[in-house]
Amino acid sequence: MYLKKSTLAAEYDISVRTVETLIQLIRKEIGKRYPPGCCIHTGYIIRVRDDVFEDCFLNRREIEAGTAPEFVPHERHAWKEPAL
User: Do residues 64 and 25 make contact, with C-beta atoms less than 8 angstroms apart?
Assistant: First the structure.
């Protein structure tokens, strides 16, 4: 699921500026750690895949140091039923 910056800030209880900083890191890692298309940027509107943002949020220091564990995608889709 793709989420906007304000939604991510509210969900993780962080500032929008911190979300923007993490998005910059995600964009640097596209093609290396994260798949193309994980961050949608159409002019003013930015959407980020929830699993990519969560990984970046939890592993930021390790990503910057180059010691992060491998990214394992677990993208959620609104049209899929949750697993029981």
Answer: yes
